[in-house]
Each structure stands twice: as C-alpha cells, then as structure tokens.
C-alpha cells in the first residue's frame, strides 16, 4: 500500500482572469497531520475545495488511494472517505446538537453497527460536547460549533479530513483543546490536512508544513524549517 493517501499533481485552478492555484503538487501521507499555511489569497481554501470536489481543476491530477478522482463529484469523494470542515460551520441550526450528528451517521457509507443515538453520544463525548447533546445548535458558541463540525465529520468515517481554519478567533485554551482533539482523531488512523493562519497551532500538531503564496508552493518542511525559511518570512510573516 502506498505511503501517500492523497497526491495532487500540478493542479491549476482559475476563476476568470485570476489563477488561484498555479501548478500545486502536494502529498498527504497515511496517518499524517499535514499543515497548509500562507497569507490571505494564497490558495489554501481553494486547494481544499478542489480536493473535496467543490471546484474542478482546470488542469492537473488528484489521486486518492491510488485512484484518479480529478473529476469525481463531491458526494463520491465523501463516500471514499474525503471529508472537510468549513471556516464557518454549517450545522442544522433548528435541530439539537445530537440530531445534527445523527443525520451524519445516517449518511455514513459504512452504516452504523450500534444504536445510532448511542453512536452520536460517543462522538459528542469524544469532542467534549456531551453536556450539550439536547441543546438547540443555535445555543452553541463558535468554539462549540467547531467541535460539533468535527463530530459530524467523524460520523462519516473519514480517511482524510481537511480542516479549514478551525482555531481562527479562538482563545489559547480553546485552541489547545482543539489541538488535543485533532491529535486524538489522528490516533484513530485518520489523515488530516489543516489549513491555518495560526502558526503556533500548526507547529504544535504538525510535523510537516507546506506554505502557499500566490497559488504556488514556496516551502515545505518541519515547523522549524518553514518558520526560518527566508522566503516564508518575506511572503508570509512580512
């Protein structure tokens, strides 16, 4: 079995006259936590959208577990195990916390082997929301909503989970709790791709970071290597 679960090869994405991705080639290893960072407009979220199938690339290739998925629709990629969260969570706000997770479990391509509400409670306990299972989602704050997003994604049995700026706007204690949850998800065997602006957060949970700028990969390496790279300092830190 190949070491890489995901490979993008020379991926290009244009929006009219704007080229958001300029030949991006990356790989995500099995059971890895890979960080993606870069300034605003560098192509980070566009890359996630192309990998998840929300956008189709103009050229290039995307391979998941050895299968070419370049032009597969999002629902097929989700069934294969490619899941993502969004910068702004998108729960069913009129439903309870537990019912949001139950809906995801009902769509799990593998099915659920136990009582679906018991399975939902276990996931909510995993992310630290078990005290709030019966609350309407509208009662949750941003931190809680992002943890709910993780529970909903886990309910779909991801093999690769892409997480878009999950700690943006959170205080340090909340960021630390999120990092511990992400590490626990990784211990379950899930590969993670984290898009983030918060450098200390990425340095805490990632052994490898890729830096984008103007739609191109400009650096790759350990947190220490990336943070000391003069090109990164110039383009990202300023």
Q: What distinguishing features does this structure have?
A:
single chain, globular, Rossmann fold, 6-stranded mixed sheet, alpha/beta, about 25% strand, about 240 residues, 2 domains, 9 helices
3D structure, described in words:
This protein is an alpha/beta fold and 238 residues long. It folds into 2 domains: 4-81 and 158-237, Rossmann fold (3-Layer(aba) Sandwich), CATH 3.40.50.300; 89-155, no CATH class. 36% of the residues lie in helices and 26% in strands. The chain is built from 9 helices and 10 strands. The strands form 2 sheets. Strands 6-7-8-3-9-10 form a 6-stranded mixed beta sheet, with helices on both faces. It has a 4-stranded antiparallel beta sheet with strand order 2-1-4-5, covered by helices on one side. A hairpin with a 2-residue loop joins strand 1 and strand 2 (18-29). The N and C termini lie far apart (41 Å). 38% of the residues are buried. The model has no long low-confidence stretch (mean pLDDT 94).
């Amino acid at each position: 079995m190949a070491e890489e679960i995901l490979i993008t090869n020379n991926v290009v994405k244009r929006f009219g006259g704007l080229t958001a991705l300029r030949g991006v080639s990356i790989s995500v290893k099995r059971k890895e936590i890979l960080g993606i960072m870069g300034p605003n407009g560098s192509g980070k979220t566009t890359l996630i959208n192309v990998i998840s199938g929300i956008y189709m690339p103009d050229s290039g290739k995307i391979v998941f577990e050895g299968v070419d998925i370049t032009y597969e629709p999002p629902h097929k990629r989700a069934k294969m195990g490619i899941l993502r969260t969004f910068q702004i969570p998108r729960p069913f706000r009129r439903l309870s916390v537990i019912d949001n997770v139950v809906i995801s479990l009902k769509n799990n391509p593998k099915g659920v082997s136990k009582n679906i509400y018991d399975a939902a409670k276990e996931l909510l306990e995993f992310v630290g929301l078990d005290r709030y299972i019966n609350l309407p989602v509208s009662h949750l704050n941003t931190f809680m909503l992002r943890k709910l997003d993780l529970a909903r994604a886990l309910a779909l049995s991801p093999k690769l989970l892409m997480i878009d700026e999950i700690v943006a706007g959170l205080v340090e204690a909340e960021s630390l709790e999120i990092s511990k949850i992400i590490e626990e998800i990784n211990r379950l065997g899930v590969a993670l791709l984290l898009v983030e602006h918060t450098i200390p957060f990425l340095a805490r949970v990632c052994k490898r970071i890729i830096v984008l700028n103007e739609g191109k990969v400009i650096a790759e390496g350990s947190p220490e290597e990336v943070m000391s790279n003069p090109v990164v300092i110039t383009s990202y830190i300023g």
